[in-house]
Amino acid sequence: MSIITNRSEILFIYDIRDGNPNGDPLDENKPRIDEETRVNLVTDVRLKRTIRDYLHDFKGQEVFVREIRDEDGYLQDGKTRAKDFLKDEKLQKELENMSFEEQRQIIAKNILDRCIDVRLFGATIPLEIKTKKKKEGQGESGSLTFTGPVQFKMGRSLHRVVMKHIKGTGAFADKYTETSKKRQYTFREEDILPYSLILFYGIINENAARHTRLTDADVSLLLEGIWNGTKSLISRTKAGQTPRLLLKVNYSEENYHIGDLDRMIKLVSEIPDENIRDIEDVRLDITTLINKLKDKRDLIKDVELLVDDRVKFVKDGEDFDIGRLGETTGIPVREIAF
Length: 338
Description:
alpha+beta, 2 domains, nine-stranded mixed β-sheet, four-stranded mixed β-sheet, flat
């Protein structure tokens, strides 16, 4: 597969019911909410983790950023993880006589060859390498920096949300010893959102792609990871997340993109935001988005699209069939398939 040569923008919308799409560990793991707007926030780190987990667990792809423990159960740090990419039996004798920079280049090549997440999102990787010059002691230190071609803004709900505090019982007593036996279960507490419809915006930069060697095949796996990865989360707080829309705009003009596509979708509902509980309670107004795409159609190669059939759209105040997007904008539209 060839390295990508065109810039793209991505819109991804998904929802969750009675869950926590992204807890804040510094605030009792409560859902992240903008205090001023009451909008639910989801970090790009959360989405990238979803993608990484799916690509590694379901597609057999190697990812650099993942939890790896040694035989004693200790978690690897970045320096130790980087050394995994120097483990080549054919090179072991040669490595002893290589300079820091030579070994650094080997690590860089091996990471880009093997790790799809670094080709997609980039990474800053600390290095500590033993060289002939410094066989004793800690070795020479440095780092590798790859700027990721794929970047996402923080996800935001398209409506105000309300947080609910729930109490329940656990499965076991809090303590059990011969001198301290309990007849009661432990209590648990958690904070959830009854409903949140979340929009992510992303961009794929063709210039950065040349440095990480990002290919068309990698981008196809990215889209699959976004959609199917979201569906595959089965933890208590994430179960039930459902992807609703995935749209990718591919440009023909070099070094160009429209930008801020996420600001061109509005939520329409006849009930207060805080009472929304299902995707059928809302419609997505894509009037501004359609008009912008139509206006810039000469700079756009095509649009890729995948939509859940329960999503309803509006254009100019009237119901809109998303299947007519190509006809309405004059841009070729093709369905995303996995």
